[in-house]
Amino acid sequence: MKIPFSLPLIDSLVEKEIHSTLHETGWLTSGPKTKELEEKISELSDTNFTVCVNSWTSGALLLFKWLKLEPGDEIIVPSYTYAATALAVINSGLKCVYVDVKDDFTMDMDQVAQKITNKTKAIMPVDLGGLPADYSKLLSLLDSESVRSLFHPKTDFQKVIGRPLIIADAAHSIGAKINGRPASRFADFSIFSFHSVKNITTGEGGAITFKLFDEGKDFQIYRELKVLSLNGQTKTAFEKNQPGAWRYDIVDNGLKVNMPDINAAIGLSQIKRYEKDLLPERERIFEFYNSVFQGKEWAILPPMEVFGRKSSFHIYLLRIKGFNEEKRDRVITALGEKGIGVNVHYIPLPLLTYFKNSGLNISEFPVSYKLFENEISLPVYNGLSQESLKVICENLSDEVEKLIRK
Length: 406
Ligand SMILES: *Cc1c(COP(=O)(O)O)cnc(C)c1O
Fold this sequence. Notes:
The protein is of the alpha/beta class and 406 residues long. The protein folds into 2 domains: 12-271, Type I PLP-dependent aspartate aminotransferase-like (Major domain) (Aspartate Aminotransferase, domain 2, 3-Layer(aba) Sandwich); 275-405, Aspartate Aminotransferase, domain 1. Helix content is 42%, strand content 13%. The strands form 3 sheets. A 7-stranded mixed β-sheet has the order 1-9-8-5-4-2-3, with helices on both faces. α1 (12-25) packs across α11 (261-271) and α13 crosses α16. The longest helix has 20 residues, at 274-293. Pyridoxal-5'-phosphate is lined by residues 55-57, 81-82, 84-85, 126, 169, 171-172, 193, 195, 206. Pyridoxal-5'-phosphate binds at residues 55-57, 81-82, 84-85, 126, 169, 171-172, 193, 195, 206.
């Protein structure tokens, strides 16, 4: 029996939506499907507008460009994340400032407080594994008089906000909740990823969603982000295609990061049944794992809900008490030989060559290392069978217990 770590959901409903793109609208690049996906994301996130793009990464680059951030401006990110979080900051010419995480894998807001300077323009927490970061604590910190008076706005938008922005790296957390409300309501901007391994996928893709002001003002921001995502062109190909509407202008040195309809179709078929079917199925998988591992003295279960912050059940981050990297890796190899795909999320940034070479030292991020050294991510995806779950749990337990007995 072969159990892959991750499988995108491809079924007859996905095929139906793609078929509709190919044969009903006949429109492959950004058009009606992308627009509908944007509306569905806003609905799910309780936000005013959503801009779909071709990856989380290009969404971050696009947003930093729209914000007119400049060299010298600082963005604070956690050390425990996928590299894209920091690389988007670095590739925008900005200074990336790192803080450690807490035991629930999310950003340590007390350390954020110590790292804020008069150059800090944004904080980018990561909802790791799907668990929303502590946005309430972050917001009260950013809203404090000491942070507001330190803030040095350079653009009109920054003046209006009056404090560093909260930009959520929500690559894992579409559908996550805080006190029963979509987590996106607790950040200024949230950026999702629809890469093939994420909860909802478009093959490759991403989206920026927000509710900052009233609908009129937010529509203006939406329009500007859309224009900036399409070479700075005032009309989309779809709009230009309308009778007599050929003339366009280029009003900015935009990027080219729009999401094609053929991709949007895949995500659209998934988001339509996400809250009702797909997300609850992921939750049941987490609960199954919990039911097995809570009886194991060696298991440290991943957080599913912490003080009202409820996960979107993206990655099951199991930890093995007392294990180090070497023992953890042996478990992974043994499972791999049996055809069971597991993974590690993530190697902390300071352990990766590029970040090490730029001066990061893991000794300054002890919690990241502690979480990483004994972490094993287990398969979680729609369509993962009960039988597979049992095989995973039995084999994992066997391998761990074998090593404990040694
Ligand atoms: C996947 C991921 C990204 C990057 O998403 P892309 O769509 O591949 O650009 C960023 N941050 C985190 C935490 C991720 O897991």
